[in-house]
User: Which sequence fits this backbone?
C-alpha cells in the first residue's frame, strides 16, 4: 500500500499524536518527541534536508556553596513589525551545588515542497499553492 502525498499549505499545523506539541503538518517525524508520524518518503527527505538557520547553545553552572538558583526558559517569536506572535515557557528547574545545565535553541528551515517550474515567479509568502490540474473549485 502506498501513501499518496497531497499538497500541503506552507505553515499549516497539527498536533503530534504522541506528545501533543503543535508541529507543521508537512513533517513526518515530530521534532519534539522524534516519533514517526507517517510513512512519506518525500516528507522524510525534505525534513532531512532541513538546515539550521540559527543555533545558540549556552551553559549555566551553579557556583559551589551558594543557595540554589531557579531558572525558567522562555521562547518568544516576533514578526517583521516587532509584534510578539508567540511566547512559551518551555522549561523550569533549579540548580544546586555544582550542577550545570546546557540549553540549546535552534530554528530549522525546510526546503520548499516542490520545485518551482522554470520561468514561474516564486510563490508569495503565506499564499496557498496553485490547485492541482483537473481539480475544480
Assistant:
Amino acid at each position: 500500500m502506498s501513501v499518496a502525498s497531497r499538497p500541503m499549505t506552507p505553515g499549516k499545523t497539527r498536533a503530534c499524536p504522541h506528545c501533543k506539541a503543535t508541529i507543521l503538518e508537512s513533517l513526518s517525524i515530530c521534532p519534539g518527541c522524534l516519533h514517526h508520524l507517517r510513512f512519506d518518503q518525500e516528507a522524510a527527505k525534505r525534513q532531512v534536508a532541513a538546515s539550521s538557520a540559527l543555533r545558540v547553545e549556552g551553559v549555566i553552572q551553579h557556583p559551589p556553596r551558594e543557595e540554589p538558583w531557579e531558572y525558567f526558559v522562555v521562547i518568544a517569536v516576533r514578526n517583521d513589525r516587532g509584534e510578539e506572535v508567540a511566547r512559551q515557557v518551555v522549561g523550569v528547574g533549579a540548580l544546586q551545588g555544582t550542577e550545570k545545565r546546557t540549553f540549546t535553541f535552534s530554528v530549522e528551515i525546510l526546503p520548499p515542497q516542490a520545485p518551482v517550474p522554470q520561468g514561474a515567479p516564486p510563490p508569495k509568502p503565506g499564499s496557498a499553492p496553485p490547485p492541482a490540474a483537473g481539480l475544480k473549485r
About this structure: DSSP finds one helix and six strands in the chain. The CA atoms of residues 62 and 98 lie 5 Å apart. The first helix runs from residue 41 to 48.
